């Protein structure tokens, strides 16, 4: 009888220890979640520190823009007109393989124009690589009120994710926004076959 009580007592102690460990891990996870640094730049209320201001000319498609730069700065090293390619995203092509627009290409350009209207201002920051093979400046862009343009386009379902190393600074946020849009079937995710 005493052996049965000892065995039951050991089981009880093991179960108690197990649940204490689970509780401690849950508390540690909650603390990490609530105290982690915020990296989501979609709605900060202002552009990030160190970003260079540009004036929007017009969107070339859903992920690139023609802009004008008043003076050389930390991102764009010349004054005058420049082309920007938004990092971390890929919009359907206006001139696809068959010469016509891919599904959602015009809508993606319209979404970009809503966020960055001609004559409007954007603030841009680079990542590890400054230019692509077409000599476009590779940037992340923010509106005057701090909305992260790359992330907003992803959240609206206007673009797909395009992660190209080493330019991955905001990829976690962009990837999460694309996943949420896809799950909700927003934009191209609810309108195009096989995106």
From TrEMBL:
Do the record's keywords include Glycoprotein? no
Please list the coiled coil stretches: none
- Pfam families, A to Z: SNase
Q: Where does the record place the TNase-like domain? A: 50-191
Keywords in alphabetical order = Membrane, Transmembrane, Transmembrane helix
Which sequence ranges are marked TM in the entry?
Answer: 12-33
Task: Please indicate if the UniProt record lists Transmembrane as a keyword.
Answer: yes
What is the name of this protein?
Answer: TNase-like domain-containing protein
